[in-house]
Design a protein that fits this description.
455 residues; mainly alpha; Hydantoin permease; 75% helix; 0% strand; binds tryptophan
């Protein structure tokens, strides 16, 4: 017998491994930080409905298309476009490079928010944020984010944790860790939901979350929902593409994407159920925006019996959620650097982490040393968020849709999504194709123009 010397490409080892890792990427601060605060500021249930529509019409088909590209080429994002584009159309690989830049940019500010969450676990344990006075909570938050040492320290901790897992590899790092963290996440969320729902006056929060007020649906609300669907499902950055390249040949991609989308939605809803009834029960303002998680939530927990324990659980759970998302964001550039340039995985990870820390420092210091460094009136933190979420993400999304819808084409898509004819899903694939060819790029283009304030 001859043994092959070609190294086997790292990848996920089981259908469940694919599911938890991909879900781990989707679930993150987007669910627990962005989703509740946006639902709060955009009219509750009506926002939820629009979000659902956006997820079904755009999010799901793009997720299917993106993971399919990765599995077809079995390569990093840049190489995937290079391999799959027709002769003379090498420029499609720009989409891969945009994803590279976008992933690092997102990590630069995302790691800082995750750092605040890590810090809040300890502050909560120490009772430092156990105050029902929003003013005191605000001062505690302000004190942390405006301290350069604290801001940088926690960002470095976050990147050290994420980096050490990435260095272990796809199966032994990402899959092994998300396999343990995802069940933990659901468990902790359920505990918080029970606590929140058994508070007096909890009903009001549920009504807010689930009874739609259709007068609140405006074009801006719809666009916000669509942008959120993209961010929450980790789309448009080549991140899902990279994960798709680790899927098994027998993985049913449309079914997996649907499960990830539903489970991601479940986490968001549970986060809403854990937060809003409590917010109403203690008479706080649901429309507090991004500060909701760091200023209102501690105050809400401090006001309830056993609050310190539940507050700690809340921040542990948020930290847990952020891990899987950051692993996927870091895996994208690491896969690119290690496969395309033949760097070892550890070396590639070291370079990517160095880039994140270098770009992340100005973002972390946005409330202190770099607050005056503004471009278009945005400090580095907001600028990175804007550039990645409002520019690179929709642009990448459009390119993926146009590539699959107009270059890759229906026969290829049918072949790939049916696992070479082994799955009978031709009707479904046709729907995905039409959405990716026409509906999604159009809607994303509108989001892009709106995000650039061109309307
Ligand atoms: N989806 C993650 C969240 O909800 C964030 C995230 C991970 C992401 N990977 C991404 C966003 C890729 C955009 C692109 O927090």
């Amino acid at each position: 017998m001859k043994t092959t010397l070609r190294p086997v490409r790292d990848g996920f080892t089981s259908p469940f491994g694919v599911l938890v890792a991909t879900l781990g990427s989707a679930v993150g601060l987007g669910n627990i930080w962005k989703f509740p605060s946006l639902t709060g500021t955009n009219g509750g249930a009506s926002f939820l409905l629009v979000y659902l529509a956006a997820t079904m019409l755009v999010g799901l088909p793009v997720m299917i298309a993106e993971t399919m590209l990765g599995r077809t080429a079995r390569a990093d994002a840049v190489t995937t476009f290079e391999k799959l584009a027709p002769r003379g159309q090498g420029w499609w690989k720009i989409a891969g490079w945009m994803g590279f830049a976008g992933s690092l940019l997102i990590l630069a500010f995302y790691s800082e928010v995750a750092g605040w969450v890590y810090a809040y676990i300890f502050k909560s344990l120490a009772g430092e944020i156990a105050t029902t006075d929003p003013a005191v909570a605000r001062a505690a938050f302000g004190g942390m984010v405006s301290s350069p040492v604290q801001a940088l320290f926690w960002q470095w901790v976050v990147m050290a944790v994420t980096g050490s897992i990435i260095m272990l590899g796809v199966a032994r790092g990402i899959e092994a860790v998300t396999r343990r963290l995802m069940p933990l996440l659901f468990g902790l969320l359920l505990v918080l939901c029970v606590r929140s729902l058994t508070l007096p006056g909890a009903m009001q929060g549920l009504v807010f979350l689930f009874r739609p007020d259709f007068s609140k649906i405006t074009p801006v609300v719809a666009l916000t929902a669509l942008g959120l669907a993209f961010f929450k499902l980790s789309l448009g950055m080549g991140v899902m593409l990279t994960y798709g390249s680790y899927f098994r040949d027998t993985q049913n991609i449309p079914a997996t994407a649907t499960r990830v989308m539903m489970a991601d939605l479940a986490v968001s809803l549970l986060a809403g159920i854990a937060i809003f009834p409590a917010v109403f029960s203690f008479g706080f303002e649901p429309a507090a925006g991004p500060s909701l998680v760091f200023m209102i939530v501690p105050a809400v927990f401090a006001a309830m019996p056993g609050g310190r324990v539940f507050m700690t659980i809340f921040f542990v759970l948020t930290a847990v959620a952020s891990v899987g998302a950051m692993l996927s964001l870091l895996e994208m550039p690491v896969a690119l650097l290690s496969e395309r340039y033949g760097l070892g995985r550890s070396k590639a990870a070291a370079w990517a982490i160095a880039a994140v820390l270098l770009m992340g420092a100005p973002a972390a210091l946005s409330q202190s040393l770099t607050a005056h460094l503004t471009l278009f009136g945005l400090n580095p933190f907001d600028l990175f968020d804007f550039l990645s979420s409002n520019v690179l993400l929709p642009l990448g999304g459009i390119m993926i849709c146009l590539f699959v819808g107009w270059v890759f084409g229906l026969p290829q898509l049918e072949l790939r999504l049916s696992n070479e004819g082994r799955l009978a899903n031709a009707g479904l694939v046709r729907v995905v194709f039409l959405l990716v060819r026409y509906v999604a790029p159009l809607l994303i283009a509108i989001v892009l123009l709106n995000g650039l304030n061109l309307f």
